């Protein structure tokens, strides 16, 4: 299958591009490398040293003989995007290429606007590009579990059966996102659903939970193929952040009570979920929604798990309850359905002590790269 991976230089996109190439797909990457520029802006870095995109794909070719073509450019530049679509004629377009940090989107007005324009306009261009150049192409779009927020009823996969005043319908599940970034994903979902209806686009919206880990079999083949791993208060995510904090003797930064519950998955499952979606395309005109996570945890559960494994490895650290920089419920009901990907063959890698230990052992090799001033959160929602 000819597959474009947009955002293929990023944390989820790079291992996905390698994995799909390994499975024999003809893969190309679109990326404007802006994620590397946010590091410059925030004076931050990936804890793992990462090679340039050119070096990465060159090494991959050397090791496997497989070519991954790269197109450096912005989805917001429609002429560029259209040209790539004409050249590649993709059967699937995997879309990771967005500004994905909630705190980054809440820094100030400029960052909120940048996030929503980058994400919403980029996705609109992809929808127009598919319509005009490759109308049969299957859009596999990364959404987020955070689109739903934390309602006091179970979260379904995209749609909810509602009975109201004696009538029934199946409606899009209500969205209550918690940041301008998460809102951008809701706006994307609406635009995609609308174009499925009016133009017959085939699309899968993958409402992904928080991804942890960094390695896949492919990224482990050579240090040049290493994946990025974020730890700072803006781009670092729970669990990955806690594991890295434990290796530098930093208290684990639980925000508030820590009862915030979220869906999580291993990066190894992210790449497999994309493959499953690609191999089982949505029908023409179908807007299909999968909840892409494997387990639910509270933030405090995760901190306790990391604290235990870190102690066994000789790192004794405390769990701190910081004043929450976000506006969110810290104790709430949470129960989300995630059966569709499993029904299509996903076999989850669950979060065991061994998995935490393995990530910890990888990051400890690079702990001297951590810029300590970047660990505490410095963006507030108010
Ligand atoms: P990332 O920032 O590491 O990667 C995104 C990539 O897209 C970067 O390489 C960036 O340079 C590129 N990009 C951004 N805007 C672009 C544009 N306009 N044109 C071309 N390239 C552009 O993020 P990630 O963690 O790999 O996340 C990938 C996707 O998955 C995002 O859409 C994110 O919202 C979603 N997601 C991520 C997580 C997670 O825990 N990391 C969880 C759920 C959903
Ligand atoms: N949190 C802490 N301490 C920390 C970091 C986070 O307590 O040091 C808490 C946050 O307050 C929040 C939860 O952990 O309640 C998750 O925060 P996060 O930073 O790990 O994840 P989030 O901001 O939700 O965003 C990440 C990705 C985003 C993706 C989302 C999936 O950056 O791209 O969309 O996870 S989800 O959470 O399902 O929406």
TrEMBL record:
Superkingdom of origin organism: Bacteria
One Pfam family here: Epimerase
Protein name: UDP-sulfoquinovose synthase
Entry-linked SUPFAM superfamilies: NAD(P)-binding Rossmann-fold domains
Family the entry assigns: Belongs to the NAD(P)-dependent epimerase/dehydratase family.
PANTHER family: DTDP-D-GLUCOSE 4,6-DEHYDRATASE-RELATED
Residues annotated as transmembrane: none
NAD-dependent epimerase/dehydratase domain segment(s): 3-291
């Amino acid at each position: 299958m000819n597959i474009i991976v947009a955002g293929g230089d990023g944390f989820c996109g790079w291992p996905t591009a390698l994995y799909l190439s390994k499975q024999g797909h003809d893969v190309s990457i679109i990326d404007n490398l802006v994620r590397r520029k946010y590091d410059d802006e925030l004076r931050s870095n990936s804890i793992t040293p990462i090679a340039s995109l050119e070096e990465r794909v060159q090494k991959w070719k050397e090791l496997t003989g497989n070519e991954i073509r790269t197109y450096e450019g912005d989805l917001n530049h429609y002429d560029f995007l259209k040209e790539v679509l004409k050249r590649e004629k993709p059967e699937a377009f995997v879309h990771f290429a967005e500004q994905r940090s909630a705190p980054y989107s809440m820094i100030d007005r400029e960052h909120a606007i940048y996030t929503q324009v980058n994400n919403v306009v980029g996705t609109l261009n992809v929808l127009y590009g598919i319509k005009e150049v490759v109308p049969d192409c299957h859009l596999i779009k990364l959404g987020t579990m955070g689109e739903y927020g934390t309602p006091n009823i179970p979260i379904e996969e995209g749609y909810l059966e509602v009975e109201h005043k004696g009538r029934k319908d199946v409606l899009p599940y209500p969205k209550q996102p918690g940041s301008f970034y998460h809102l951008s994903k809701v706006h994307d979902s609406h635009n995609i659903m609308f174009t499925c209806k009016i133009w017959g686009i085939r699309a899968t919206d993958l409402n992904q939970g928080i991804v942890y880990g960094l390695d896949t079999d492919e990224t482990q083949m050579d240090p040049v193929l290493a994946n990025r791993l974020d730890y700072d208060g803006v781009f670092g995510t729970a669990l990955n952040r806690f594991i890295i904090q434990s290796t530098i003797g930093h208290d684990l930064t639980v925000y508030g009570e820590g009862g915030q519950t979220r869906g999580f998955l291993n990066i190894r499952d992210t790449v497999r979920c994309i493959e499953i979606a690609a191999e089982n395309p949505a029908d023409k005109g179908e807007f299909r929604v999968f909840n892409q996570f494997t387990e639910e945890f509270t933030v405090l559960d995760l901190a306790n798990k990391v604290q235990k494994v870190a102690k066994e490895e000789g790192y004794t650290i405390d769990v701190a309850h910081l004043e929450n920089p976000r506006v969110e419920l810290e104790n709430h009901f949470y129960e989300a359905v995630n059966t569709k990907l499993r029904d299509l063959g996903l076999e989850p890698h669950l979060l065991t002590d061994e998995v935490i230990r393995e990530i910890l052992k990888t990051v400890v090799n690079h702990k001297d790269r951590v810029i300590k001033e970047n660990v505490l959160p410095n963006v507030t929602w108010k």
